[in-house]
Amino acid sequence: MTLDRCLHRHRADNFQTIPECIYRIEEIIGEALIFYEADVLDAAALCRIFKEHEIDCVIHFVGLKCVGESWDIPLQYYQTNIGGTMTLLEAMKQHGVHNLVFSSSCTVYGDPQYLPVDEAHPTGACTNPYGRSKHINELILKDFYAANKDWNIVMLRYFNPVGAHTSGKIGEDPQGVPNNLMPYVAQVAVGRRSHLNIFGDDYDTHDGTGVRDYIHVVDLGKGHVAAIKALENSCGCKVYNLGTGHGYSVLDVVAEFRRTSGRDVAYRITERRDGDVAATYSCPSAAARELGWTAVHGLSDMCAHMWKFQSLNPTGYRSPSVANGHTPVTDGETVTDDAEALTVTDARRRECTRRQASAAARLPRQPIETTGESVTNDDGARKGGRPLLTTAHRTSAYGAK
Ligand SMILES: O=c1ccn([C@@H]2O[C@H](COP(=O)(O)OP(=O)(O)O[C@H]3O[C@H](CO)[C@H](O)[C@H](O)[C@H]3O)[C@@H](O)[C@H]2O)c(=O)[nH]1
């Protein structure tokens, strides 16, 4: 597994959060992972990884992903999100790896012309540089496939991923003030923030607040497993929505979070946020029909699992881990809040490095079979076979929408 630092390449001090997450994934799946700290724009580093492992499929998650930030630093967005894809494609090509799953986004649809949005909906009228970078990536991949018909490429258009693993060990841990609704709500509920600002209540929706298609991250993960199976069946170049098909407003989310957490979520209505659309939700039937994938978790699970992660880890991966049943090494430093964000310590990183070295020594050099049975279930219990996340040969990146 390659963890790309692109999300953090402009904030190198935050990078250290990643090993804690990996450490917890290892605890859930009961096996050690291999990851590389590398920049997706570093062609030599990518080539080294392809040389060191027999890879037959890549999931390309890498990208900068904040709509607002993309207005401030558009060149970094284009460089990382588009340049990264080009560098990766070159490396894959050089090493004969022709199967790719790409993380796209419903943002490519822009302000929907009709609802629910299906894959035939026009794309490209994006409302920000981040969205355009995703759309350009899709165009590049389609052109690339037209010239390389022996490849298989699946582009997954995520709607709004939320929730967390049911163990409460891994979940979303935004650095600084959360940009997205659900982590913000969770931080209000846990007492880290005083109130939520709701960006507008005068949209043409059932209660005036924005409507989105929230999808549980576990369902999203399973969508990738389904996509990998399609690659294995030589699917060619395909695009699928990954959503539930249901739209919920901001106030719906607040109400459900209050119900599942038993906590208050104070809010204030403020101005609309630039670039927000009133409503978007998916038609997910193509993924159901062709990939055999359907989201099973509803809003209640999304809120409950998000709350479990947040309440067990009030300051994210910097929290003493109740969920893990142990307290992470802190080298004597105090965990407080974002401003003093302490991340994973040297001791923890040394531990990760040791585990990865030992995992590397154990890994076979031939491809590992991937089957539906090889994925962990929501509780992290093994269903048999080798968990997908441990297939170091297959997975390329981490950290984006
Ligand atoms: O503090 C907040 C945060 C969000 N919202 C509202 O909550 C809804 C969801 O907002 P998010 O920021 O959680 O998600 P977006 O739909 O704006 O953005 C997401 O979907 C986009 C595609 O439409 C991109 O993929 C983007 O990366 C991803 O974060 C919107 O109506 C937004 O106005 C608030 O009211 N207050």
From TrEMBL:
Keywords (A to Z) from UniProt: Carbohydrate metabolism, Galactose metabolism, Isomerase, NAD
Domain NAD(P)-binding intervals: 24-306
Pfam families assigned: GDP_Man_Dehyd
Annotated transmembrane regions: none
Chain segments carrying region Disordered: 351-401
NCBIfam families tied to this protein: galE, PRK10675.1
Listed name of the protein: UDP-N-acetylglucosamine 4-epimerase
Native source organism of the sequence: Priapulus caudatus (Priapulid worm)
